[in-house]
Amino acid sequence: MKYDLTTQVDVALMEQWLSTKENRHLATGHVGTHLDTYEKSDIPLDYIICQGILWDVSNIAENREISLSDIENLYIPENAFLLIHTGRSEKEKYGTADYFREHPQLSNELIQWLSNQPLCFLGIDCAGIRRGKEHEPADRMLEKNGIFVIENLSNLNQLRNTDAFQVYTLWFDDPVATGLRCKVVADII
């Protein structure tokens, strides 16, 4: 069974936001489900298919930062796609102010630890792994270690109670944009 993890974008909300941006082309890459590539690193084609791992933190994510001490029995195999389920995309509609306001985030210690794991992608169902001015530096640190952050995923709750699945990710290269819109699909094995 396959699940589309790509967030559906409300065109009216997207146009409203894009109308406030100086460079519409660059801003469009950061709409909906996308991966950040601030370092403009080449993304290996082997990343298209990864073993998926779901880490469900929806019981704590709205109350505090997700920290390294929250990890229990999380095994990360080589070339994995770690999906962090915060529950934000189920509670708030993408594109609304409430979706972006004080979204869940990972602690800096956890991000540092994840940067040394054998990951291809780190996906999350909210607007990023850090908020505000800390967003881009966190994404850059992971990218320098070959790990790309994919934001604004949805339907991660469909993967609960799933033991094994693969994740297919397709992105659209752009020589200038720092956000690349992408399609993410989980296939339960």
Please explain how this structure is put together.
The protein has 189 residues and is α/β, with parallel strands linked by helices. Helices cover 20% and strands 25% of the residues. The chain is built from six helices and eight strands, in the order βααβββαααβαβββ. The chain has helices spanning 11-18, 24-28, 88-91, 97-100, 108-114, 135-144, and strands spanning 2-4, 34-36, 49-56, 80-85, 119-124, 148-151, 165-171, 179-188. α6 links the parallel β5 and β6 (148-151).
Write the layout of secondary structure elements.
Layout (H helix, E strand, L loop, with lengths): L1 E3 L6 H8 L5 H5 L5 E3 L12 E8 L23 E6 L2 H4 L5 H4 L7 H7 L4 E6 L10 H10 L3 E4 L13 E7 L7 E10 L1
Parallel strand pairs: 3-4, 4-5, 5-6
Antiparallel strand pairs: 1-8, 2-6, 2-8, 3-7, 7-8
Q: What share of residues is helical?
A: 10-25%
In this structure, how is the largest beta sheet organized?
Answer: 7 strands, mixed, barrel
Strand content: 15-25%
Q: Give the uncertain stretches in residue-range form.
A: none
Give the beta-strand count: 8
Identify the strand order in the major beta sheet. Answer: 2-6-5-4-3-7-8
Rg estimate, integer Å:
15 Å
Distance between the termini: 8 Å
Could you spell the SSE succession in H and E letters? EHHEEEHHHEHEEE
Structural class estimated from helices and strands: alpha/beta
Query: If you average the pLDDT, what whole number results?
Result: 95
Helix segment tally: 6
Shape: globular
